[in-house]
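Page 42, continued from yesterday. The earlier attempt failed because a stray header line got pasted into the input along with the sequence. Redoing it now with the clean sequence only.
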Amino acid sequence: MSLMHPYDVTDRQGVRHATTLADCLNIQRTPSARQRILDRSFHRVGDGAAGLQIEKAFFYLDLARGQAFLVQPPRERFRHVDASAALARMLAVLPPAMREQARQVRLVFGLEELREKLVAAEAGLDDRAVELMKAALLHDHPVLLTRARLRLVLDEVDAQGAQFLVQYDHSPKAFKVTYATPELFCEDEKALRRWSGQLERNDLYKLDDGAGQWVNYRRWLPSQDAVAQLHEMVGALAKGTEPKPASKPFQSLLKRLPKGSALSGQGKQDLRKLFLWAKKKNLQKLQDQLFELRFGVELEDSWYRNGDKDDIDTLWRLLKNLPDSHVEGNARLAEISLGAGGGGTYSPSANEIEIGSQELAFKERFEDTLRHEVGHAVHEANPELVNAWLWERFGWATFESTQQGIDDWAALMGPGAGWSGLSAAQKTQMRALIRQACGKAEEWGPTVTPSAPAGSPWKAPNFGPRLAFERSGKSWYEQNATWYRANGRAFAFNFWYGTLMCVSEATLDFVNHKMPDRYGAMSPAEFFAELYALYFDPDDPKRKNVPADVAKWIDKHLGAPESTKAPRPKSTVGQGARPGKGAKSRAKRA
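This time it went through. C-alpha cells are written below.
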C-alpha cells in the first residue's frame, strides 16, 4: 500500500505550505506518482522557478518492474552505508514472494537519482553501465569538472543516445551532453565488469557483497569517504574522544575534504562543530585551516597569529549567513587578509579583501566592514547585472574622462547646463578642462582648479560641468546635498577614481536621510557595497528602510539572506536604496 501524510513545509521566504508527501509509495496502487516523478512535479510545492522541491525519505516499490528503492535526501549521502543496512531490514519484512519480485534493489539520494533509475530502466539500460558512461563522458569532457558541486544525471534516452543533464550547485548554468548509442556500451558486460573491478571496494558490480546498494558515480570521489570520516570523528568527539590534529590520519583527512561550495550541508555542520572544539582548545592554526575548508577562501596567516581568539569565529558566523554563491562560490573572492590600521579594502585585481587590524576591537564595525567588502566582491562577480540595476533603479553611473564619457555625462544635464550650445572647438576646450579637474585619481578632493581664459564657456554662470566641479569639493560624499542638480539628477566629480558621476536626486535623499552613513554617495560601487552590508545585516535597525522592490531584486538576482526570513518591508523610495554602516572603506582601483 502507499502511505501519504499531510505536512507543513516552510519556504525560504518563511511562507508555510500545506502539502501531502509520501512515506511509502506502491506504484501499483498509485501509478500516477511514477509519472509525476518523471515530470519532476512529485513532492513539489509551487510552480516554475519559485517552486520548492521537497526532499524527504520514502520507500519506492514497483514490483511490476521489479524495483525496490529507498529514497533519502541528498544531504544524507555520507550515510550510505547505514542507509543500505536500513534498506536490507525493510526488505526483510516483506513477504518472500514480494522479495523475489524485487530484482533491482537500490538506495538513491534525492528525486533526481530516483528519476534517473526509472529513465534507465525504461530504456533497458543497466544503471551500473549508466554510471560508467558518466565516467567516460567526464574523461571526454574534462571541462565539466572545472566547477564545484557537479550534478550529472541521465535525463532521457532518445534516437541520438543517452542524454545527460549537467548542472552545478550555486550556478544557473545547465548543459546537455549526449552519449551516442548507449546500447553498444552496455552489450559487453564482461568488459564493463573488468573496468568496474579496477575501482576496488567501489566496484559497482560487487555492491551486493556488503558494500551497500548505492549505485552512483559519487562513490568514486575521495571526498565522499572523507566527509563520512569527518562525521564519524565529530560523533566520537561528542562522546568524549578528541581528535589528534597533529596525526597523519587527521591531516590526510583535511587534505581529502572538499572545499567551500563542494562541501555538503552535513559536511559544513560537522566542520563547524570541529571548529568550535578547536576554538575551545585555542588551536588557532587549526581554526584557520577549517575556515579555509568551509568557505574555500584563503585566510592570511596573521589571522591566527594575532592573538584574538574570536576573530576567525566572527568571520565564520558572518559569512555563513550570506548566500553560498557570495563567498564560497564566488571566484572574485580568493583571500581575506588582515592589514594594519582601520577600515577595509577590496582589490578586484587580486580578488582580495583586507581588513584593518584596528577593526577587531569593535566587533560590530568589524562585521559591517567585512560585509561591505564582500559586497564589492559580489559586485565584481556580477558587474553587468549590478551596474544596469544601479542605473535603472537609482540613476547611478560613472563616466570616464574620455571624449565619449564627458559628452554623455554633460548631455544628461540637459540644455540649461550650457553644453549643447557649444561649438565643436569649444567642446574640445571644455573636455580638456574637465580632464584637468578630474586630477590624477586617488585623492579625496580636487588638486587642480582649471584655468580658463576670459570669455570661456567654463566661466558662464550656469555652466553645469564647472558647477559640478566646484560643488563636489573635498570628501564629496559628505557634502552631496550641494552637488549640482539638473533634470532630476545630481552631478559630481569623483577625485578618488578620476571619474564623473551622476545619480538621481531621490537616491541622494535616501542616502542622506535613510542610510547609516553618507559614504554611500562616494560612488556607485560604494553605494552598492553599503546597500549590501545593510541588507545582509539582520540586526541593523535601519534595515527596515530597504524598499520592498530592492529587497525582492536582491533575493531574486543575488540571493536571499540565510538568517532572515521576516516579511518584506513595505517602505518605498523614489529612486534610492539603502546601504550599510561601517568604517570608511573603498574598492581599490584594478
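Notes: The radius of gyration is 30 Å.
Reminder to self: strip header lines before submitting.
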